Amino acid sequence: MSESQKSAEAAARRGPLFIVFNAGSGHRDAESEMQAISRIFDQSGRYFEFLQCSASEPMETLARRAVTLAKERQGVVVAAGGDGTINTVANAVLGSGCPFGVLPQGTFNYFGRDNAISQDTAMAAGAILHGRIAQVQAGMVNGRLFLVNASVGLYPKLLEDREAWKAQFGRSRLVAFMSGISTLIQSRHQLRLGIESAGEAASLKTPTLFIGNNRLQLVQAGIGEQHANALAHGQLTAIAVRPIGTLALLGLMVRGVLGKLGDADNIQSFSFCRLTVTPKGMRRIKVATDGEVSWMRTPLVFEVAPEPLLLLVPATPELAGVE
Predict the structure, then answer these.
(1) Which residues of 205-230 are buried (b: 16+ CB within 10 A; e: fewer)?
(2) CA 238 to CA 280: how far, in whole Å?
């Protein structure tokens, strides 16, 4: 075992915990969740410290501060929130050598569930206190990390509209589904993309390009075990929708919910290690990474991160308690 590995193992077993907490994630009461987390870590005798998001100190700044503290004091960085929160904190942790813990608080929690981390706070905290370090693959797009997925085109629009609906109607799977229907009905735009991977180039016309890095999400959508298993071998999975009308798009959405997307004729998918995407006539484009939308310059380069995350996961399957 290398010195860096020994240091990470020591930090995981007894180092202080620096918890980046997003009070806005999911539908749980933030104060009661903080109290529950505090009780568990108090009982363990482990030092912990909350770093809570505010208007004056955004999450990116908090995440960097947590990493600095963890490196100085040989500790663990913990993200308490949904997939977007976990993404932001992981982006700061990657390459630092610090162990990374997760307390899932969001609506979907694909990252935690895919890594056997329970949505139950007590069980997830137990994985941080008594778990093991697993090396977990991260994806990158133009230097920005993603753990679950990244996308361009229609999918970022779906995410933006979903957040607007949630702000008005609350956070639930039904609200997310209804907002998706509304977006698809209004959508007309098609992207013209030049793509290149492993020395081969092609042109692609599609309303959306989706890059997956989460086995659970791919399997639930019905994309197929062959692509989901590619993730375990250092690859990512690209999914593109062929140019189709609104009714066909609605049909694909229903297929995705039912886990039958892989059977659709209007879907094309492939796995890769590195993919360069050049949208025709666009110097910048909106890109969604784990539910967060931002502008990026083109071309876009999707690839597997050179280093894995050192994620704390349950020591044994019996302790996972994944729902």
Answers:
(1) ebbbbbbbbbbbbbbbbbbbeebbeb
(2) 19
- Judged by DSSP in three states, 16 sits in coil
Paired tokens of 177:
């589904």
Q: Which of helix, strand or coil describes residue 38?
A: helix
What is the sign of the dihedral through the CA atoms of 202, 207, 209 and 212? negative
**Residue 191: which H helix or E strand, with range?**
strand 191-197
Q: What is the pLDDT of residues 96-125, one digit of tens each?
A: 999 999 999 877 789 999 999 999 999 999
- Return the sign of the alpha-carbon dihedral for residues 153, 240, 139, 137: positive
**Listed residue (56, 55, 54, 71) closest to 20, CA to CA:** 54
Sorted by where each starts, the structural domains of the chain and their CATH numbers stand as 3-138+307-319 (3.40.50.10330), 144-304 (2.60.200.40)
pLDDT digits (tens, 9 = 90+) for 207-229: 889 999 999 988 888 776 667 77
- State how far Cα 286 lies from the chain centre: 17
